[in-house]
Structure formats: structure tokens, C-alpha cells
Design a protein that fits this description.
The complex is a heterodimer.
Chain A (H helix, E strand, L loop, with lengths): L1 H28 L15 E9 L9 E10 L5 E4 L11 E4 L4 H33 L4
Antiparallel strand pairs in A: 1-2, 3-4
Helix pairs in contact in A: 1-2
Chain B lengths: L4 H27 L9 E2 L2 H14 L27 E2 L14 H34 L2
Antiparallel strand pairs in B: 1-2
Helix pairs in contact in B: 1-2, 1-3
Classes of the chains: A alpha+beta, B mainly alpha.
């Protein structure tokens, strides 16, 4: 029945938005880290969404969303002049991550609104299905 | 001449199926509200319902019969989907090519789920009427 697919669709959206929140949390936590886990400067991570059919067999089935990749922002890291820092290079500049805190906050707000909306959709579908089950009684 | 039970319940049953299908389409739209290049879809409910109910009365055999090899094949009511998905025209354009507007989709989703529930109640009422007629009260 069509309504059961709604759990797959909204479930995929909830999962994707939570991965987006994870990426945002990583970026915000590392906004001031000088070096990443491999020694190179931390670059902000963004998730890529792509639409994905929920049921491969049924072409008219719903379309969910999935994270098709996590990319690192390849724009220039910002340089801060701090000669006393042990990580400073020969000219006294320290490479800080290219995390834009304002953008990340907006990302977080958008992801959490989408998350809430999809949870509401699942609740509505669940209530309708439960009422449908009581048909005739 | 008493109509068969199938005919009595038919209209609301078809409406219920189409409403469930529409819930799925709208949930897909909302799930993909952040996917780049995703276009919002919907179908014309009134046209689909008329198609589904009228074709039950008219084409009992389904489709047009062909007696010559040069006749075109016209599909019956059960085969191709009368719920042809169309694109929703967005009010505001978006940079990433996504045409889903969350407010519009949420409003239509809420409207659709209330109508689903009303179809459910009508169907329930008709079933109870039939049951009481059978029991002779």
C-alpha cells in the first residue's frame, strides 16, 4: 500500500538531515583547530544530497533522499598572523580552517527544521494508517 | 435493482487509494526539499478520481479493442497510471535548482491528510449502513 512507503521516504530524509547535522557539528567543533587528524589544515565538510527512488521495482514509487558524498571545501583557508604560535610558518602566519560559522549556523537551523518536518510527516502517516486499520469497526 | 456492494463503496475506495498515492508524492517532495535540482511533483486529484471512477463504469473490458494491425493500442483503465505526475511551478526560484517550497508542500500535505481522513469516515459510514441493512435493523 502506498502509505507504507512514506516511512521509507521520510526515514531517508531524516537520516540524511542527521548526517548533515553531523557535518555541521564537526565544522563548528573544529572552527579553531589548527591542524586536522592527518596534520593538514582542517577543511570544512559539506554533504551532498541526491534523490533516490525508494522502491526500485515500482517506478511510480516515492523518491527519498540520500547523502551521495561528503566533500571538503577546497577554498583557501584563512591565514591569521600569530608569530608566537608553534604552528606558525616562516612569515608568522597560522593557517586556520575555512569554516564560516554563520553559514554553519544557518545550515544547522535548516537541517533541524527539515528533520522536524519529516518527523511530523511520519507521525501523520502513522496516524492515518492506524485509523485505516480500524475501518469497518 | 440493487447495486452491488462494490459499486456502492467504489467511489470512496478509489478516492482513498488516490489520496494515499498523493500522500506519497507530497512526502517525496518534502523529503527532497534540500536536494539540488529536484523538481516538485504533484498530480491532478480531481482528474485522476474522475478517470478512475468513470472508467469503471464505461470500459468493463478495459481499453479499446483492435481488430486490425494498424489500429493503435489504447490502454485500459488498469494499466497505465492516470495519476500522471506533473511539475509544480515554483513561486520563487532557487540557486541550486530545487523547486520545492516547503510552505506550499506542507499546506497541501495537511489538506490532503484531512481529506484522506474524511474519505475514511465516509467509507466507514457507508460500510456501517450496508452492515445495518444486512442485519435488517
Amino acid at each position: 500500500m502506498s502509505l507504507f512507503n512514506v516511512f521509507d521516504i521520510a526515514g531517508s530524509a531524516v537520516h540524511a538531515q542527521s548526517q548533515r547535522l553531523n557535518a555541521t557539528a564537526s565544522n563548528l567543533a573544529n572552527a579553531d583547530s589548527v591542524a586536522g587528524p592527518d596534520g593538514k589544515p582542517y577543511r570544512s565538510r559539506q554533504v551532498l544530497f541526491s534523490a533516490q527512488s525508494v522502491d526500485q521495482a515500482d517506478r511510480a514509487g516515492g523518491v527519498g533522499v540520500r547523502v551521495s558524498g561528503v566533500i571538503e571545501d577546497m577554498s583557501e583557508p584563512r591565514k591569521v598572523h600569530d608569530p608566537k604560535n608553534p604552528f606558525a610558518d616562516s612569515e608568522g602566519y597560522v593557517t586556520m580552517p575555512n569554516v564560516n560559522v554563520v553559514e554553519e549556523m544557518v545550515n544547522m537551523i535548516s537541517a533541524s527544521r527539515s528533520y522536524q518536518t519529516n518527523i511530523e510527516i511520519m507521525n501523520t502517516a502513522k496516524n492515518l494508517l492506524l485509523k485505516t486499520l480500524q475501518l469497518g469497526s | 435493482m440493487l447495486p452491488s456492494i462494490h459499486q456502492l463503496l467504489d467511489f470512496n475506495a478509489e478516492a482513498l487509494k488516490l489520496r494515499a498515492e498523493r500522500i506519497r508524492v507530497l512526502a517525496s517532495n518534502i523529503a527532497n526539499s534540500d536536494t539540488p535540482n529536484f523538481k516538485a511533483r504533484d498530480f491532478d486529484f480531481r482528474a485522476a478520481l474522475e478517470n478512475a471512477t468513470s472508467s469503471q463504469v464505461a470500459n468493463a473490458g478495459g481499453g479499446a479493442s483492435t481488430t486490425d494491425a494498424r489500429h493503435m493500442q489504447i490502454a485500459g483503465p488498469g494499466s497505465s497510471a492516470p495519476t500522471a505526475l506533473r511539475y509544480r511551478v515554483p513561486q520563487q526560484l532557487s540557486i541550486d535548482g530545487n523547486s520545492v517550497e516547503l510552505d506550499t508542500e506542507r499546506a497541501r500535505f495537511a489538506d490532503n491528510s484531512v481529506r484522506y481522513e474524511s474519505s475514511l469516515r465516509f467509507l466507514n459510514g457507508q460500510i456501517k449502513t450496508i452492515l445495518s441493512a444486512i442485519q435488517g435493523q
